[in-house]
Protein 1
Amino acid sequence: MEINQQCVVALTWKLTDTLGEELDVLEDPVEFFVGGVDLFKKIEQALQGHGVGAIVRLQLEPEEAFGDYDEQLVFLEPRSLFPAGLEEGLTIEGTALPPGCNPEAPKNMLYTVTELYPEHVVLDGNHPLAGIALRLTLQVKGVREATLDEVGRGSAGTGFFRIAAPHEHGPGSTSLH
């Protein structure tokens, strides 16, 4: 079976930046719904017509992937608003931000604690790969017809590239892992 709209494809991949630095490797195949919300459109387009065993290489510019870096999605918040166990790298849903945080911080974002200081916390709503051009080597490990449930949801349930809800600031709202 060849990959087309509304099928499910099992993929492995290697993700690097344009300098060749390895950013992510997926060795065990994961299923994605083609024609829904699981994959970026450029990935779906590149996969069309390929079958099991195909290796597809492509480059994604920031606007085709996680968006440009948006400085307006970085917020400096008082350290006193957060619990003592807060650590760099932790993520916080916008709806779970403590009372007293900047009301301009969108609630439908996923924020990463990027820096901790005695008096403040830096929260970044950008995806960690925002602003970075990416090179992706995909290997097709399986292709099957989608179930009616998958077609109805527009997802195979993985949503690897789409775990955070889109927000009003554009394509940088998606999340990897």
Note: The domain at 71-124 is CATH 2.40.10 (Thrombin, subunit H).
Protein 2
Amino acid sequence: MDASKMEHLHKFEILNRLPDKLLHEVRDYLFFRKYRKGQCLFMEGDPRDRIYFSLNGYIKLTNTNTEGIPTLYIFVKPYSMFPYVGLFEDSHYKFSAEAVTDVEILYMTTEPLERILQRSNAALTHLVRIISQRLFDHEYRLQILTHTHAPQRVHQLLSFLMYDLGEKTAENTITIPCPLTTQELADMAGTSRETVSHLLQDYRNQGKLEFLSKIITIHDPDFFKM
């Protein structure tokens, strides 16, 4: 393993809680891999035999209903571990993972990581906090996105994306660097692509955002705050 890749481990919030001895054990199990845009890392229902650590690029997690239609999107940004859901319990993945851009990742088999985490109270405590917060966020977002009108859902979705993925690029300007299509935005908001396109055009005309080459730039973050 390239030593330069290992220098990034402290940027992962779970691994950062491990004492040096356990972090060195993690390094013994890690492998490096690149995925091209559009490649699948794993499919919903596959054996949950690996845990991933994203170094760069963006990854989309989706699960589907009985008709095969995506019902939940989660975007993974750099320096994130995934999936959290199912640690210590599930035998199969509950999501499919697809590279939205070219990505570089570290990965290790699940059993050694779970065994190492169980030996660190600090890492376990932090893991419980993360999972609890994410469950709360997902429940809140599902409630918002299923009990409001389409324009409100799109507005809230942009707020969530700004919060999750946004990067400050200038004074009072935030860019969402993960490329997103209007169809993906429509699927996430539970509305039509035409509705999303119309609302995005309205926001552009108002000077609230720009949407160019699948990249959203927020010019008025306060307008989209939750």
Note: The chain has two domains: 3-130, 148-224.
Protein 3
Amino acid sequence: MSQLRVLITGGSRGIGRAIALRFAREGAKVVVAARNSDQLDRVVEEINAAGGHGHAAQMNVQDHGSVEAAVWRATEFTGGPLDVIVNNAGVFEQATLEDTSLESWDRILGVNLTGPFWVMSEAIHALEEGDRKHVFNISSTAGKQGFPLGTAYCASKYGLRGFSDALREELTERGIRVTTIYPGATDTTIFDGVPGDWDRSTMNKPEDVAEVVWETYCAPEGTNVADVDVPPPR
């Protein structure tokens, strides 16, 4: 397999960082995008140490201009084409319907759903120029099942599932695979500020999700990779 060219949003920590390092171990060129430049720089160092070639692209997925600029920097680094896009940037909040403000609703939908739309809109032509082309949209079990205190979050993840399904129909003839990944609760910093009695020892690790993404990418042509769950820890 030739050197892969990968763009990962939300790549500075958690699942995004783990996916970046998994592709780095295969010698990939990995562009990690997120808002925090210091965290991105540290992940780039880890990518390089793992055997890949890393590049930081500061991006706010809610800002179209920011996405446009970051994708331009990514393709400049890769030489033009992209082989893999991972839409991983996400936010998680819990609130009753009455306590969900319009500002919170807009933020959750903006990051979790509109963000992937902006990224794909700006990166689609670079992806078409890639070799073994694949889009991964990181959803959640909340994209298949509703949960109390999760009206905004579940709406965003159900929406991402619909976005993926429609995008798959649109891109199949262009030779582009589209996979929706459904992790269960995963032990990342996303839970640090969320109230609740979370037993993080029972959660998946980010590396579990990253391995599923890599194995899915390597699945032979003709394999059904439309919707992929991340099994709970054993």
Note: The radius of gyration is 17 Å.
